[in-house]
Amino acid sequence: MVRLSTLGATALFAAVVAADTIVKECGVGIGNCPSNKPCCSQYGQCGVGAYCLGGCDPNHSATLKSCMPAPQCQSKTYKFTDSKSSPILSNTKYLGDPSTADWVADGQPLFSNGVVYLTMAPDTVGTVLASTRYVWYGKISATMRTSRGQGVVSAFIMMSDVKDEIDYEWVGVELETSQTNYYWNGIPDYTHSGNITNSNTYSDWHTYTIDWTPESITWSVDGQVGRVQKKSDTYNATTGNWEFPQTPSRVQLSLWPGGLATNGKGTIDWAGGVIKWDGPDIDSAGYYYAQVRDVTVECYQPPSGAQGSGKKSYQWKDLKAVNTSVVLSNERTDLASFLATGDNPDKKPEGMSSATVTSVKTDAAGKATTVVSVVAPTDSSVGTVPGLDGAGFDSGDLNGGTGRGSGGSGGNGGSGDDGSDGSSGTNSNKPATTGWSQSDKATTGGSSSDAPRQFLLWGNFVAMVLVGAVMATL
């Protein structure tokens, strides 16, 4: 099975104005990031700021310390009753302190009827929620309903910074099948998959559980064990490695277009074909959506022999990318700004001017008005949020939280600043919005053979201008 396990970001404005290719800058067969943008993101791009937080790849960053230490596990049930019950921050605002948010969002999460909707409006690449805290073995459950439709993929996975991975995935044309999989160090071995049969995943609520110990992984649906993978069956005598997920991982919930036309043929075929942007959910709600009611994390003890006694963070001590490479530490996990890195976590912007955005708005009578808006200073011309340019403004930041009316960022009056509800949320087809829009660039594709990966840059007649002050030290 060829598939995309993690989802990049894309821009959502109104119409396609350009399409380009992002060439991966770091990773296997490519090399490490340079010192001026030292952190290798989950999507194989180099930068500072958020690049150095969740998903930062220590193996392909400039130094072992370029990536920030990861917040340690906390046993908790996360309910999505509203935007304050389990706080979600846009990845353009989160700086690594887990006390400020439970989840980091890339895309458009919406709240309504006691659940969070992971949305995917036409011609976007959907939404990802990633936990701010990591899990180093534990029992993780998500109560959810998947999306549906040809080319539409819902996912609940565990992903480490060295790409150890444990998956549930649901293809929108196979609604009675939960696909499971695991990977070690990102090696694309597609022989590890296994299916669990269950009732309709779109119409029925199910609780999906990953019980991950140092010796096994158990996948269960509604309390019934569907599959067990023992570590003892994963030894590779050639490499001398246990090819079994064993490093601290984030919980990730996502909705993405496996059938995007720019994806590899294998990914499109696996996803049920090229995605159609005119299905019943698009017609009724304006977007595809998956729903998540709650997530429960029960942390297990670190593995026997784990080094260190710290209670705050997980830190890499070497690049072997196995469980003995991780230390329990009390090192900080937060950055002082989006210019900071693990090598220099206190770096702050200096002497920057504000950016301006000029647009022309036309009212119903046809009267045109020129609007000049002052935007907060950009941090740098170096990428600071994976998938975004400059200081990491997303389109919600630049246009005041407004966007596509049919399920975009501001169609229901979200604020775009604090993630608070923007409407009553009584209509399940139009949930309350967080005010975020889907981000500016996407890294899409299936297996590594799909590189170079594609992104779509979306826009309306209003031009978005990002003016970055180039730091002399970068």
UniProtKB/TrEMBL annotation:
<feature type="compositionally biased region" description="Gly residues">
    <location>
        <begin position="398"/>
        <end position="417"/>
    </location>
</feature>
<keyword id="KW-0378">Hydrolase</keyword>
<dbReference type="InterPro" id="IPR050546">
    <property type="entry name" value="Glycosyl_Hydrlase_16"/>
</dbReference>
<dbReference type="InterPro" id="IPR018371">
    <property type="entry name" value="Chitin-binding_1_CS"/>
</dbReference>
<keyword id="KW-0808">Transferase</keyword>
<keyword id="KW-0732">Signal</keyword>
<dbReference type="GO" id="GO:0005975">
    <property type="term" value="P:carbohydrate metabolic process"/>
</dbReference>
<dbReference type="GO" id="GO:0098552">
    <property type="term" value="C:side of membrane"/>
</dbReference>
<dbReference type="InterPro" id="IPR017168">
    <property type="entry name" value="CHR-like"/>
</dbReference>
<dbReference type="GO" id="GO:0008843">
    <property type="term" value="F:endochitinase activity"/>
</dbReference>
<dbReference type="InterPro" id="IPR013320">
    <property type="entry name" value="ConA-like_dom_sf"/>
</dbReference>
<dbReference type="GO" id="GO:0031505">
    <property type="term" value="P:fungal-type cell wall organization"/>
</dbReference>
<keyword id="KW-0326">Glycosidase</keyword>
<dbReference type="Pfam" id="PF00722">
    <property type="entry name" value="Glyco_hydro_16"/>
</dbReference>
<feature type="active site" description="Proton donor">
    <location>
        <position position="169"/>
    </location>
</feature>
<feature type="region of interest" description="Disordered">
    <location>
        <begin position="338"/>
        <end position="357"/>
    </location>
</feature>
<dbReference type="GO" id="GO:0009277">
    <property type="term" value="C:fungal-type cell wall"/>
</dbReference>
<keyword id="KW-0961">Cell wall biogenesis/degradation</keyword>
<protein>
    <recommendedName>
        <fullName>Crh-like protein</fullName>
        <ecNumber>3.2.-.-</ecNumber>
    </recommendedName>
</protein>
<dbReference type="GO" id="GO:0008061">
    <property type="term" value="F:chitin binding"/>
</dbReference>
<dbReference type="GO" id="GO:0016757">
    <property type="term" value="F:glycosyltransferase activity"/>
</dbReference>
<keyword id="KW-0328">Glycosyltransferase</keyword>
<keyword id="KW-0325">Glycoprotein</keyword>
<comment type="function">
    <text>Dual chitinase/transglycosylase that plays a role in cell wall architecture. Chitinase and transglycosylase activities are coupled. Required for the polysaccharide cross-linking at the septa and the cell wall. More specifically, transfers chitin to 1,6-beta-glucan in the cell wall.</text>
</comment>
<comment type="similarity">
    <text>Belongs to the glycosyl hydrolase 16 family. CRH1 subfamily.</text>
</comment>
<keyword id="KW-0472">Membrane</keyword>
<feature type="domain" description="GH16">
    <location>
        <begin position="63"/>
        <end position="279"/>
    </location>
</feature>
<keyword id="KW-0336">GPI-anchor</keyword>
<keyword id="KW-0449">Lipoprotein</keyword>
<feature type="signal peptide">
    <location>
        <begin position="1"/>
        <end position="19"/>
    </location>
</feature>
<feature type="compositionally biased region" description="Polar residues">
    <location>
        <begin position="430"/>
        <end position="449"/>
    </location>
</feature>
<feature type="region of interest" description="Disordered">
    <location>
        <begin position="379"/>
        <end position="449"/>
    </location>
</feature>
<dbReference type="InterPro" id="IPR000757">
    <property type="entry name" value="Beta-glucanase-like"/>
</dbReference>
<feature type="active site" description="Nucleophile">
    <location>
        <position position="165"/>
    </location>
</feature>
